[in-house]
Amino acid sequence: MVYRGSGVLVFLAGCALSFRLFAGVSPEVTGGTAEVLLKQADGIKTSNQGEFTALLRRLGDGSLELSQEQRLYLEYLEAWQVAYRGDYKTAITLLDRVMAQSGDPTLRVRAGFTAVNILGIASRYEEAFAQLDPLVDQLPQVADKETRLTGLSVAAQFYSEAGQYDLATDYANKLLSENPVGQGACRGRYFKLEALFKSGQLRSVGEQFRDGVEVCAKAAEPIFGNLIRSYAAKAELDQGKPDNAIKLLRQGYAEVKETHYPPLIALFDATFAQAFWKVGDQTSARRFAQSAIDSGIKNEYTEPLVTAYRLLYELDKQRGDLASALAWHEKYMAANKGYLNTVSAKALAYQTVAQQVLTTKMQVDTLAEQNKILQLQQALGKKAMEASRLWIILLVLLLGFIGFVAYRIKRSQLKFMKLARRDGLTGIFNRQHFVSEAERLLQYCCKSNRDACLVLLDLDHFKLVNDTHGHAVGDRVLRRAVAACQAHLRSTDLFGRLGGEEFGMLLPECSPDQVLARVEQMRLAIAAVSIGEGGAIVTVSASFGVASAAASGYELRQLMTDADDALYEAKREGRNRVNLSTSRGAQLSLV
Question: What NCBIfam families does the record point to (predicted)?
């Protein structure tokens, strides 16, 4: 089975994925009964592909007499093999047959979890989540340790991918409690560290990271161990310690290369590129960024690919090769959009299935209420007058209940729609919704021959605020800065968070002079923001880049490029200023 996390695919259905998979071990199939050979094949499917394939061939050539359950067991192993090779459609067909026909509850659950993971790989997230909950409910009745290990691992990974980090941590803790040593201990530590890191609860490299790497090394789980090491390196980068990140990555790079596992190699290369860029080694940063692109999964948008494209864009822009920088920026925008769409699809799939479960429960409750009403009606049939009055009362209650259910469902739908469009910290549009609305509004302005201006703002030295006063103070600064800007925006203006401390605004039907005046007010309002923390006063300033449709055209991509160039020119001129891009290549700066 495969785990799609941090842009890396990790097989979970059997033992540790070892570089021996690629070593070309010659198969030597020994004699034995069908049951012995089936268990032998099951035990080596991730450690010796050559012998595993030979065993399946022998079991399926008709020389051994197999019972019905043994044939289904063989089909399960064959499904695992074709899924490993990428034929997910055939694998799902085989697994569905095993689940429908097998009388062995353990085999049915194993087949179910394998199918869930394959559906996830095939981006059929809603189907995967719909099957996951019933399978997890069956785990307490499963005695087989390997099956429980697989099931808990799949649950932890899927909930983490959907952004349900508390649930992912719960399943990781169950893995650890049931598996104090070995593969389960390694995977439990990995999923727990991943959930804590992604939820922002773990930002410094401590004993937990080192312990996780050591446990995975003892369990012969090189991929999980190096995934933990990659998170440790990212934590060092977040703490502004790129030299430490490079040291950590070098410790595992040789082992990662030996796995011949392209997604993991791409993850390490992309993180290497980030670290070298931060220490000023542009040559190494470019080399590792290109390697991350070459090593990654083809035709798939992953986090390492997004990182590599962004770094190459920054490197070429820094050296003045604007044509190449623009080409990399276009690839970065496409990759980032694709990656964010995938992440959003997973979260939305989880919420959709959760909503369906809630709706089904409410429907069952409604049917139960209706059944009670019918029973009461029959019991009171002889008392016509009393029954009539009771019926009216119950009917009103039923209509009220149905109305309440409809209200709850509608409110939940509106809530999920808002979550999909809004930034969780500031409450303004997230990047994806801002881009979508901005493109729509620009089309309207173009057709109606109305001017529009795009404004990009970036808080100056914001990383220093986080590093000095902590992320809690940084979050307060972001919210106060957003509030300061909103005071000068109209209801028709668009305002969104593009990432980190960078924000975008689209102001329709405004001339550049009008926009500059309003943006200058925003700059002064942000500069006036102050937050008391531990006896110190935290202040912040912002730099603005402005591009108008009159000069840059109505294409959002060109407007963002010109505004971004103007923003960086403002940064270079000393920050805390407004810079207008009057044409492609000329800027007007206002302090």
Answer: GGDEF
